[in-house]
Amino acid sequence: MRDRWAIILAGGDGTRLQPMTRAITGDNRPKQFVPVIGGSSLLDQTRRRTARSIMPGHTFIVVTRKHLRYYEPLAHEISPGLLLEQPNNKGTAPAILYSLLRVATKSPQAIVALFPSDHFFADDEEFMSHIDAAFEAVESRPKTITLLGMTPTNAEKEYGWIEPHRTVLGSAVRSITRVKRFWEKPSATLAAALMERGCLWNSFVMVGRVDALLKMTRAALPELYARFAAITPKFESRAEHKALADLYATLIDTNFSHEVLAARPQDLTVMRVGDVGWNDLGEPSRVLTTLARLGVQSHLAISAS
């Protein structure tokens, strides 16, 4: 596990789920800081899940400074160097690029797994066994970046989809296939067709060597990459805070999935993940569906209606 690193993305605002999370906490904190399902926050669940395969001391957590009052307890719990504070939320691309460059300064040969902080898994152990398999795949093929694609259970039109190249073993769990293209929030008819031809839900979980991930990002977003690379000498110094503030003040929102992954399918492979009870808790309906699947009755159904 020495060369394994994790990045947990916890800087989003979670506005779509706010009516439900407000019913739980009484305030407007983002969903990653809320015990939406279970007795602990989604971020804490993600941290525990990740720790099955990556040492906590090798896990960066990316947050946004305006959420300080919600993550302040965490700041006292983990090493200060592992909490990466963005001055503002400018989308997933700056958050990922900043954290990848921080990993690279620590361990240039690192293999990195990136995790959203707002997902639910009914079977953490089984899911993390797929992460272990992805790490092993990258170790044998260092230029490979592997996305984890969830085997769909319905023709979901609100998810992003990954279309793999067809292979003989492509339908087997843990098979790894080259990515053909991405489909973002398809129509119901197209989603059904994608499911029929073996496409996968995009979990936005990925594993790759830090240099390969940075190379892909640089190819897709050269200007953004250059601007972040220019401030890397200031990392872990007193000047980092101001350098980040100055940089983020000029950034536009940039989505990593749209601007990097969808633009560079040739750099990507996808691993087919079996039934791990995954759900992206981005909508109230998904929370209620997950609760129903778990056999949990909740007053949250009222707040979501």
Question: Your description of this structure?
Answer:
This protein has 305 residues and is of the alpha/beta class. It has twelve helices and eleven strands. A five-stranded mixed β-barrel has the order 6-9-7-8-10. The chain starts with a strand and ends with a helix. The C terminus is likely disordered.
Secondary structure elements and pairings:
Blueprint: E1 4-9, H1 18-25, H2 42-50, E2 59-64, H3 68-75, E3 83-86, H4 92-106, E4 111-116, E5 119-120, H5 124-140, E6 145-150, E7 160-164, E8 176-184, H6 188-196, E9 200-209, H7 210-220, H8 222-231, H9 240-248, H10 256-261, E10 268-273, E11 279-280, H11 284-293, H12 300-304
Parallel strand pairs: 1-2, 1-4, 2-3, 6-10
Antiparallel strand pairs: 4-9, 5-11, 6-9, 7-8, 7-9, 8-10
Helix pairs in contact: 4-7, 4-8, 7-8
Distance from first to last alpha carbon: 45 Å
Oligomer status = single chain
Report mean pLDDT, rounded to a whole number.
92
Largest sheet, if any? Answer: 5 strands, mixed, barrel
Low-confidence stretches: 299-305
Taken from the alpha-carbon principal axes, the silhouette is: globular
Provide the descriptors you would attach to this structure in a database record.
single chain; 305 residues; alpha/beta; two-stranded antiparallel sheet; 12 helices; 11 strands; 38% helix; globular
Summarize the structure.
The chain has 305 residues and is of the alpha/beta class. The protein has helices at 18-25, 42-50, 68-75, 92-106, 124-140, 188-196, 210-220, 222-231, 240-248, 256-261, 284-293, 300-304, and strands at residues 4-9, 59-64, 83-86, 111-116, 119-120, 145-150, 160-164, 176-184, 200-209, 268-273, 279-280. The protein is built from twelve helices and eleven strands.
